[in-house]
Amino acid sequence: MKTILSLIFILSSIQVASANLDCDRVLTSDYSVDSQSFKLNEFDLESDFEVSAVAFAREAVTKLYSNLGCEELKQKSLQTATCSEVIKGVSTSKVCYLENKQGYFLVSKDMMENINILYNRWD
């Protein structure tokens, strides 16, 4: 019985590790780039960038993971999240920085309905 439980644990660990590698592969175009940009539609999210930019940015990255089929990583919390205006007093210059074990994300919203996400992997 111990052997069976150990085998199940090992197989599930391998599955989670391969899911992380698959998501890393997707985020980096099969490891051919260190950073990549993605675009989402703001109407796909519940949060409002103007009301709570941090919540909006977290939801945007979670939605990106979901769209890429990274369900396991979608559940992982983003360790750091902060937003600020690049030019003080200009709300349209607001950018959010989020990071996790895979890398970091810069999230911004344009004046139309697009969410721009820039992913950069850790070295």
How would you describe this protein?
With 123 residues, the chain is an alpha+beta fold. The protein has one domain (2-121). The chain is built from 3 helices and 5 strands, in the order αβααββββ. The protein has helices at 2-27, 53-67, 71-74; strands at 35-41, 80-85, 94-99, 103-109, 114-121. The protein has a 5-stranded antiparallel beta sheet, with helices on one face. The radius of gyration is 17 Å and the shape is globular. Mean pLDDT is 83; it is low at 4-20.
Walk me through the topology.
Elements (H helix, E strand, L loop, with lengths): L1 H26 L7 E7 L11 H15 L3 H4 L5 E6 L8 E6 L3 E7 L4 E8 L2
Antiparallel strand pairs: 1-5, 2-3, 3-4, 4-5
Sum this structure up briefly:
Helices cover 37% and strands 28% of the residues. The chain contains 3 helices and 5 strands.
Number of helical runs? 3
**Widest beta sheet: strand line-up:** 1-5-4-3-2
Percentage of residues assigned to helices:
25-40%
- Mean pLDDT, nearest integer? 83
- Write down the Rg: 17 Å
Relevant terms:
5-stranded antiparallel β-sheet, 28% strand, globular
